[in-house]
Amino acid sequence: MSFPVQPSQPVKSSGALVSVSAAVAAILMLHANSARADDVPCTYSAPANGTQSCTAQLKGVDTPDQTTWDHDGNGHSATTPGGTTNPLNFSLTSAPPGPLSSVDVDTTGGKGGYGYHADPVDTGFYRTGGNGSQGGAAGDITATLGSDAGAYSSTSGVAALTINSQGGAGGGSGLGSSLQATAGTAGAAGNGGNITASVDGNWRGAAAANSAVISTQGGTGGPGASWNKHEIGLSGSGGNGAVGGNGGNVVLTITNNKGGGNNQFNAGGGVLVQSVGGAGGAGGNGEAVDGTTGGNGAAGGNAGTVVATIGSNVIVAETADNGAALKVLSQGGVGGVGGSNGGSGGTAGAGGNAGDVSVVVEGGLLDSLGAYAPGLLAQSAGGNGGDGGAPSKWVVGPNGGAGSMGGTAGNVSVTGSNVTINTGQYVNPTAAEGDTGVMAQSIGGGGGSGSASTGVFAVGGSGGNAVDGKNATVDLQSQITTFGFHADGIAVQSIGGGGGKGGDATGDGAGFQLVVGGTAGGGGAGATATLTNEAGSVITTNGDHASGLVVQSIGGGGGDGGAAYSKSKGVGFDANMSVGGSGGAGGDGGVVTFANQTTNAAEVTTHGSDSYGILAQSIGGGGGVGGMSTSKAQSYGTQAIPDLPSIALSAALGGAGGVAGGGSSVTVGNQGLIMTTGGESTGILAQSIGGGGGAGGDATASSTATGGKFNLAATLTFGGTGGAGGSGGVVNATNSGMILTTGESADGMLVQSVGGGGGAGGSGDSKASASGDNTSVSTSFSLGGNGGGGGDAQSVIASNKGGAIITLGDGAIGIGAQAVGGGGGSAGGAAASTKGDFSADVTLGGQGGLRWQQLES
Fold first, then answer.
1. Measured between alpha carbons, how far is 480 from 750 in angstroms, rounded to an integer?
2. How far apart are CA 49 and CA 448, in angstroms?
3. Residue 178: other Cβ atoms inside 10 A
């Protein structure tokens, strides 16, 4: 039951801040039935401009930060965690006393306290930094909003209805003394609570407001302590971050029990439903001296499962760009970045995992009029891995911090019937920017990038590996109309994350120098993507590159290897070597098929160019490019030592390109009606495509020797090997309905298995020059990298079983079936030049990639 109360002063109760009336209500409830949850009614603000807000909150107490050390010089720890809150029950089922500007239902965990650093002037051994304390967990929320509830928000960024559970942030750590190798321990973040909500009513807002936001989020993990130049005497290594908090589970039901158009979710922004993991704590920065390290970043928090059910009479409308009428999201937290500035950069934290996302529609209307704003977006995305920390350039042997792996995605499904969805606006269909009617995506977290490194003997950080996507499914009976470029009717995608880039390495030294670019991370694979457009559906798109039905499984691309740039000078002798990092492997595309008997059992019409009736693809990710390598050595004689020779040696090795991912099987069917009117708008385009192999890195080296008793210059270069292309998979397309195309080059069915091309080999280019009054000898050897082999094609089947295929445009064929293998990568060239009294150079180009093996189709 809900009733108005006057604003009152907060009081402390069970570690939470609640209003006096809320505390009384909770106590009465406890006496009545020993319930652990607090029944919190509205606390109404003082009326302003004819409206007032309704707030129901439970907030945990923040823990104070520590600011002193003990009598021994140890930094004090924050021993008390942030306050947690009880679960919150909220109900607003009767009409409020007056118009409301917003309703805010919230549980918030208290912030953890920061530990303090050790006494920087204490000369004792092993003085410890203080620990940060854990953030408080937010309580679960159970909310019921009846058909008489509602609000209108005219405030930018404030939703008409907000239901939010936010975990508290963890506290940071303090540094120990210079003789204490580690800092205190940072505090983990608090978790967001679970949300169970049943929402009816009239929720509206202005252009910059959402109609409703239902969100649970983990707090941010505590950061590791950083070195401070103003506090000499403390440890030079940064502290490690702490893990982010988890987002809770969400179960949301939206209804319109009154029916009609009086109750709507109607604002600039639409309805956002999400569970988000908190970001991992960042590693602390170190001191720029040898032997120190940046702190490690921590893993992001995991997100929970999100389930949304949309009732038969629900109306959701939005007008803002880059939004969605209904967005349902589970997003893992991003990994914490590694600390910088030490002799070695800190390693990053892994991305958090995402939960499953399920949307069930029982009817209703979704209108999304903004640009790049889908009608319904259901997405599960693993958190990206953090980036590695950058080392100082003032140390010997700086090592870039490694990027970390991404988080796993969850499964995504959109099912139901009788829903009407409209996106975009009819202004000029060929120029307007709308978006897809229904988009379901499962996306693996991308790998973090390795840090670049600069200095003597620099090594770039390695990139993190990406993670696979999970299954994505749409099985829907709907009426969908879209306007705008690339505004597909329904799109289903399972996408592997992209591999992290390897860090570049740059060095400038004297006498001897070696730099190595970081190795890249591999891409994640796509999983199974399934789609069925059920009987009774009508899908219509109005715009170029706007297909009716799109179902794709896409492997993530491998990261690029780090480049290596090195030069050095020396008196009498100088040697220099640079090695480019290898590119990461691409992920495989997954299986593409239908959810229930066929892909299309209804009516699909497209009115733009390059707008297919059905586009079904499994695509392997491309291999990453190998890092290029450049090396330059210079040696000089000196009159101070007339018998001193001058010798310069230089070598450069390009990084290998990554192997590409392959495509998997594609199965597509049509039992309904497909009509396309635009040029090159094929009725059914079904493809399995292998990714292209990564190109090998180029290698360039030069050496110069002058002014010695004897002058010798020698160079060596090896271009990187190209990566192999991925194979295409088996493709099977069947038509038993009707396909009608009227545009030029708009085929009825085109079915293809295509192998990816091999990556090109890197080139080698070497130069050697020796000169002076005495004997000068130069030699140069250059080898181009081999090209990668092309990927195979697999069998394809295109069948017309009792159906009709009619093409009316010029150059439009009825059925096309192709199995095309990938070409081998071109060989890397080689070039060499020498200068001296005696000189010799050798060049050898690489070998081209193997040709694909032809298969029968």
1. 25
2. 49
3. 19
